[in-house]
Amino acid sequence: MNSVLHEAEVAVFARELTRVFGDFVAVDHVSFQVRRGEIFGFLGPNGAGKTTTIKILCGLLRPTSGQAQVSGWDVSTQHEEIKKHIGYMSQKFSLYEDLTVKENIDFFGGVYGLEGVRQQEREKWVLEMAGLTDKTSTLTGALPLGWKQRLALGCAVIHEPPVLFLDEPTSGVDPLSRRSFWDLINTLAGQGVTVFVTTHYMEEAEYCNRLALMSRGRVIALGTPSELKRDWMKESVLDLECDNVMEAAELLERDPIFTETAIFGNLLHLVTPEPEQAMARAKQLLDEAGISLLRIDIITPSLEDVFVTLTAKDGN
């Protein structure tokens, strides 16, 4: 999956891409390739460099060094061309709240040079896609968040760009709207649009064809969701349920047999190279502390387990 692609297959390309602000290295020699029609995810904690990378790729920020191309356009010398040939949507949606739904669509269509029959066709498409055909005169600011999100997506792709950049587009949106939004993303990808998305949500990362995990400005892992779980999680993960998960976490993280402990809701995940001995040790320590153990199992690692383990090893 990570082999070098033929140039015609590559929609987004970066080699040793770097951006420095004063003494701070925001993007540190990042390299990757994104296939045409692929959903490519950028996963990482706040401050990892995801948004800065996207801004460089969208022609909004110049790189300090390195190379990158989007649909064959060079980010250093052809950033204005890039802006014309991509779609971009951020978590703030970029909509004008004091304009109606139709006025927003008309505005973005005009920005991208649409007019006449073409503008009308694309406006109809956006309204149908967003489920807003009966809300054309509604002020955008009055729309529920999920509808704003769909409208913003429609405005971002009204000119049918070959590459779409989504920077945490579902932040703050309810799970049902998030799932509906991803149905739209999959539809666009199925039509050949390359989708480059950053997210904090692990379930969304599972929807991506491939993922780059970023930490402190660097790509520390790259592959499909299944490859990341298989190749980057060498140790076992224990899933533990008890009657006091916070106290259990504080107790078990002090024992060297557990290389990582993380709370997942009312459960505790323990990473260890010796699962059988670790299970016995956890039972012993919890029993001695008077904490009731309800269940402990060896499980298949999730993307979140990979994420927590790799970022912890990288110093976050």
Which characteristics define this entry?
six-stranded mixed β-sheet; alpha/beta; Alpha-Beta Plaits; globular; 11 helices; 35% helix; 2 domains; 316 residues; Rossmann fold
Structure description:
By secondary structure, this protein is of the alpha/beta class. The protein folds into 2 domains: 7-229, 3-Layer(aba) Sandwich (Rossmann fold); 234-300, Alpha-Beta Plaits, CATH 3.30.70.100. Helix content is 35%, strand content 28%. It has 11 helices and 14 strands. It has helices at 50-57, 79-84, 101-111, 116-130, 145-156, 175-190, 202-205, 225-231, 245-252, 275-288, 303-313, and strands at residues 10-21, 24-35, 39-43, 65-70, 73-74, 86-90, 163-167, 194-199, 210-215, 218-223, 236-242, 260-264, 267-272, 293-299. Strands 6-7-8-3-9-10 form a 6-stranded mixed beta sheet, sandwiched between helices. Strands 2-1-4-5 form a 4-stranded antiparallel beta sheet. Strands 12-13-11-14 form a 4-stranded antiparallel beta sheet, sandwiched between helices. The mean pLDDT is 91.
